[in-house]
Amino acid sequence: MTVLAVVHLVLVAAYAGFQWTVRVVVYPQMAGVGAGFAAYERAHQQRIARVVGPLFAGQGVTTCWLVVLALRGSAPAVPVLAGGVCLAVVLGATWLGAVPQHRVLDRGWDAVAHRRLLRVDSVRVAAASAGLAAAVWLVLG
């Protein structure tokens, strides 16, 4: 379980760092794009998917594996389940909150959609950070 927990920690830490970068750098700079925003947004969606897709997939696999181990009593349940809840919040906020706002922005700049995206992203940052704390807890005990 130790190798699995460390791999999980690496994936969760990579995602948390990615999410903080998106929240602090990528999304705020969208407001300054100006003309050509729709093309910028489409390119952003294509490029970001190449990074976030594998991170989501990796976390999904390690989280499910850890949950199975926790149910069998082979992994500590509390940090595993806490991490699972955090990942569920991130995925839910992404699919139910961020993706719809990106679809609006795909048609062109929309200040309201951008503000909503920033709010949703704050939820993802908080959940990713809490998930990182749970993964550290899992590894360090």
TrEMBL record:
Regions crossing the membrane: 52-71, 77-99, 120-140
Protein name: DUF1772 domain-containing protein
Keywords: Membrane, Transmembrane, Transmembrane helix
Highest taxon in the source lineage: Bacteria
